[in-house]
Predict the 3D structure of the following.
Amino acid sequence: NNVYLAYDNFDADTLAQPPAGWTVQGGGPWNVVADVGTNRILRESNAVGANRNVIYFTSVTNERDVLVQADVRMTTVAGLESTGCPLGRVGGTTAANMTAYRSCLQFITIGALTNQRVSQLASWNAGAFLSLQEPLYPWVDATFYTVAGAFFGSPATLRTYVNNVLQAPSIVGNNNVATAGSVGLFVYDGDPVNYDFDNFLARRYTEPEPVTAVAAESANALSPLFGSRENIVANQPTLNLRYLRDVTLGAPTLGISEITLNWTFPTGSTSANYDGALFAKQAGSVTPTFAPADGTVYNTGAQPVAGQFIAANTGAFATVSAFDENGDNSIVLPGTQYAYKAYTHDATAITGAASTAAPHYSFGNTATQTNTTAAGGGANKNWSYKTGATTLAAPALDPGNIVVTGGNDNNVHAMSVTNGQRNYQPGGTSGVTGGAIQGRPPLIAASDTSHPTCKNVCAVTYVAAGDGTVYAFRADTGVLLWQTGVLTTGGGSGFQAAAAVQVKAFSGAGYLNAFDLVIVATRNVGSTTNNKVFGLNGNTGATVWTLNPGNMDMVNATPYIDYVNDMAWVASRSAGGVAQPSLWKINTNTGALSTSFNLNDIDQAPTQNFDGRVIYVTTNGGLLYAVRTDINNCASGSAALGVTPRGFPIPVETAALNDDVFFSTSTAVSKVHVAYPLATCAPVTFSVSPGGWVNPAITNPSSLVFSPPPQAEFMYVASSDGHLYKINPTTGANAANRLINAGATIGDPSFDTVIQKFYVGDSTGHVFSFDLF
């Protein structure tokens, strides 16, 4: 709670009127009047009661209607004045207790000598014993008391308490305290008008919220006045108060998966006092209850209270906006309401504070900002998800359920296909690898995986990372199932290509392994001959077989699994020539090399046509090869196409033994018609741009994806101009496009055939969902 300490002595206020800025209640009228010397006091002049004077007051409040009143003097007649303790709480309507400190004694002037006072410790009044101490002093019957011994003060006054009756007092000097029922001590303090005495007791007490009004001072048997030193500058206490005010929240900018928060710092504030703002949020309209602890730094995405997240934490006074967006560090879903609370913080160490170290935080805005995101769809994105770095590989799909992507942030991100909500926050070993992820991580659905932990429970994703290690993760929680040791050799080596998986549930009787087989190929830097292909047990990560031919150059493209023949096809470089192989056919049961082809450097993945007879692959030099799977050592190549291929070719069967083969180049999309004989290796014909096809000009195109039946057949390709293009596969005409992210390079698209959505990453680290168009 906020705590305010206030002090006022009226010396600078104008006479004959209430103090400046005060609203005085209770009796009256109240006016500032002259006191001793230059002192001024606040006096109530009431015809029906004694004057009441407030010399100065100190208040301690934890709510707006609490005041501890101090220094009340009931009369100004010399020799008849009285001083007393603060009354405590004044006013208040809420049921709350207040803890404060009472520092006082009760003083009553006695006798003709005006320089003598008795400080009462207890009294006998109206037939009942009254102790004035807070907390009550435990008076014991038939006990002899020495004030100087039991309390403070000098000289001592001796009193006896017998059978609930206060006996006659002792005589000190020539003064007999004859007032029946008093126990106390003499205090010599000079002229009572110019009183100067020390506090004798300081007792802590807790005073409950009153249910009835506090009685007027004039109605009390003992007139109260508080015992402090005279209010002069030299004696006034000082308080070093550092208080951070809150920002003023401006109108937010609401997106589909993002909210821009805007604010201004308090008027008059500077960078010397404030160095940023912290925002907490939770879903719904209820204000976050999170209270930041001084000295603690909170990272964006942290969840300090269940269901309450750090949406933003800025580190500069000049920053007056923050972007809260859906991703690995935050959850911002389409058409969803969120409540935000803002706190300012400093960067200054404060000696004597509960936490000396910065940052220190304000108490937070009392007016919570509630924001609702827009709904996506149509020409707009359905949702987006922000990763930590560029992610250009095609997202992996468990259609209708999960999207999985990796990127240069070394993390594996899994999210809902419906709204982009993360399945988990990568961290520790959950969804975290030791290197960049450049390829599409294969995702095996729970119903299809052979992994005993995840079978019919969770999908499994396999990741070949830039640190040369292969990982298996649960796609629902990110939990690491297994990881291999480093399989690559040489400084800077690692996996560039994604893993390929032969799923046992999809394989025929010829597949002999009892588990899913994960196949990875290395990119060892510094040698053109020492690369390998590994077959790994998908349940454990153990090596099942290794192909180490001794003349394999680096592999940059994902292997292709031929389920018909239980073969893996791996494309590699070949030291820039045809002296060593660049396309490798490997038995998935044994890891044995079936055959290889010297086709020159290849960085593009091979693909298989619809009838399974042909593997198509493009070389870096711009040739398209048709390699037969049903005829040994049969590979036919086109003439030079005059282009630089990218991605992988996509064959579309147009008739028996006839395919239209589409593939991206550095500047466009090419189409080549291939016709091949049934049972012989030759002749194979390659027809470039058949049927009036015109290569559509696309800036830095991605790999291709087609809309499947029963949808109308169109080809989709992304570009570095921020768009996803829809291409007519017959003519090459640009039929439509969607702006994905202006100014960003858009990566390889994926298409969910269950819910008809596109998913694509980009150079800014975002993953987007768009409707089929």
The mean pLDDT is 81.
